[in-house]
Design brief:
alpha/beta, GroEL, 2 domains, six-stranded mixed sheet, three-stranded mixed sheet, 4 helices, 9 strands, elongated, BBS10 protein, TCP-1-like_intermed_sf, GroEL-like_apical_dom_sf, BBS10
Length: about 210
């Protein structure tokens, strides 16, 4: 329930509504508008490759060698983002903050980015779409990308002064997520309404479980 409702203080209760899909309470790090269905990728690690693996020392003998290494990282990052574009990936959903070079090439190749998703949000998206996070680096960076989710729409959503991300997913299960936009004059009233609604849903779950049995 926590991931499927958003409390918006400063508006009358009558402004509350139910929206299809999921509302992520953060703004796009990069937004590239697109029409129709698109492919989304879940990631849990930075897309800019590191100079070395964890626990391995990286030694350079000159400033030129170090700059060459940075150029290699930049080119590898660009190659990955271009590879996403070729595979029709138009949206990155990341549990970590991506570096500026990733955001730059995402905008260049028409890929929207949403960062810093919680583990609960990532788990919910995985449950709805049936996809697991993508591991970008390995022996073959250009391997075919199969871990993509179908997104029916992806757009900014303004809740009073807060910019959010509104996404519709093509669900692979019976569960079709909808998000409750719960409005009220102050936070305290919204919290009371949210608690009452959650208890009501819990009661309904118990009721239908008893009927099924």
């Amino acid at each position: 329930f926590a991931e499927l409702h958003a409390a918006v203080p400063g508006l009358p209760l009558a402004s509350s509504r139910v929206l299809p899909g999921i509302v992520l309470r953060r703004d796009f790090a990069a937004y590239c508008p697109t029409d129709g269905e698109l492919r989304a990728l879940l990631v849990t690690e930075p897309l800019r490759p590191a100079l070395t693996a964890p626990g391995v020392e990286f030694a350079v003998e000159s400033e030129g060698q170090y700059q060459a290494s940075l150029r290699w990282i930049t080119k590898r990052t660009e190659a990955l983002m271009k590879h996403l574009q070729i595979n029709n990936v138009k949206l990155l959903l990341s549990s970590v903050k991506q570096e500026e070079v990733v955001i730059y090439y995402a905008k260049l190749y028409g890929v929207s980015v949403v960062e810093c998703l919680s583990s609960e949000e990532m788990a919910l998206i995985s449950e709805v779409t049936g996809v697991s996070p993508y591991a970008p680096f390995g022996d073959n960076v250009n391997r075919e990308i199969t871990e993509t989710a179908v997104v029916t729409f992806c757009q900014p959503l303004l809740l009073v002064s807060r910019r959010c991300v509104h996404i519709g997913f093509s669900s692979v299960c019976a569960f079709q997520p909808h998000c409750l936009i719960l409005c009220g004059p102050v936070d305290g009233v919204n919290e009371q309404h949210a608690a009452a609604l959650q208890e009501a849903f819990t009661m309904l779950q118990q009721l239908f479980k008893t009927v099924d049995q």
